[in-house]
Amino acid sequence: MENCGYIIGYDLNENGCQISYYDEEKHELKTLEVAADNYQIPMMVGHYKEAWMFGREAQRAAMMEKGWVVSDLYRKAQRKEQIEIEGTVYEARWLLGKFIELTLQTFRKKEVSFVSFTVPWIDQDIRIFLREAGAQAGIDKSRVYAMDYRESFCYYMLYQPKELWQYESALFYCDREKIEAYMLKQLNTDYRREKESFVSVEKVAEAQMEELRAVYPVLNVDKARNADERFRHFIQGVFNKKHVSSVYLTGEGFENNWYPNSQKVLCNGRRAFIGNNLYSKGACYCGLKKRSETPDVPTYLDETKLMEQICLKMRIHGVDVWYPIVEFGTHWYEDTREWEVLLENTEDIEIHIESLATGQWNVETVSFAGMPKRKEYSLKLIVRTEFDDERTCRLSFRDAGFGDFFPATDFRVEKIIHLGGTNGQFNSLS
Questions:
Q1: Model pTM above 0.90
Q2: DSSP code at position 371
C-alpha cells in the first residue's frame, strides 16, 4: 500500500475519549494507553502560557487552577454551546476540533491516512460536525468517517476469525443503571451479484436494573446475587431460539465480577470476551476497510443507509463491468462524487438502479444527443453524482475536453434518479 501511515479510530462519548490506531506499515492495531491499562483520555482542552493542552494535562491544570480549561467537550459540542473565556467566545465544536488536532500530534511521525469516529448515537448533524472537526485537525473530509457504536461493533467483529460471527454475535453493554443487548446478524437479501453479503446490528433488548446499585462502588455480595439472577434471565431471553457464535461484554458495569452464574450461561457452547476498547478498535477496522476496500468483508447496513445502488457499464482493466457509482450502504448526504471517463462511440448510456429490498433492477437511459463528435476514446466526460435528498440523485455528464487536442465545450446533460428511500424496507431484510 502506498503512503503507509496510521488509520485512527476514536471513541468519543460524554465520559471520555479512547483512541485505537492501525500502523499500515507494521500491520498492527493497538489502543493508546494514557497510563498502565488505562485507555480513557479526559474530554478536556485548555490553554496556559500561550500553549494548548488536552486530556490529563488539562485535567491537572484545572486542579491546580492554571490557565483555563473546558471539560465535557463532546456533550457541549452536541449542544452547539458557546463558551466565553476571558472575553473571547469559543464554539464548543471548534474546541472539540482543537482537542482532536492535539491528540493527532501523537502520531506526527507518520502520515494519518484515515480517521474514523464512533459515538453512542449519531444523526446527520453529528456526522457532519465530526467530519468538520477532522478537517479542522488537518484531515481531508474524504478521509474522515463517523458512525455509531452499532456500526463500530460490526466492523470489530468482521475482522475477527469467521467462526466468531458465523451465526449471530451478541454484544452486552452495561453501565451502572442498565444493560443493553445488541445482535450482529447477516441479512436476507435477493441480491446475489458476486456473492456480496450484508450484515447489520440491532438492539434486541434493554433492561433498567435497580439491582446494579448494590454492585457499586463497593460490591455487596449478597445483594449482587439479585443482579446476577436478573442478568441471567435477561441473557436467556436474548438467546432464546438464536444460534449465537460469540459474546462480547463492554462498559464499566462489567468491571466488578458480580455475575458468576450469568457467565456460565454466556459461555455455554460459545466464546465470550470482555473489554473496554472494542468501539475504538471497531472504528479503526472501519477505516481499514474504507482505506483498503477489502473485497471479502460484508457491507454494513442500517436504517439510515441507501438500499439501492446506481451502476454504469464501464471497462476497467479491459473487462466490462457494471460499476457502482452510488453504492449500497452509503449515506445520501455524503455521496457527492466525480469520475473522469472516456466514452465509446455511443448516442446514449444505460443506468441500472438495483434494489436490495426487491432484488430487482430498473433501467434508465441518458441521451447524448448534441454531444460533440470526436473519435472513439477522445471524448472525456466528467460524471458527477449529487443527492438533493435521500430519494433524489442528480446524475450529470459534462464534456471535459481532451487535453490540447479538443477543448471542453458547454455540453452537459443531467438525469434525475428517483430512489425508493428506506420506507421500512430495511426491516424486511432481517
A1: no
A2: P
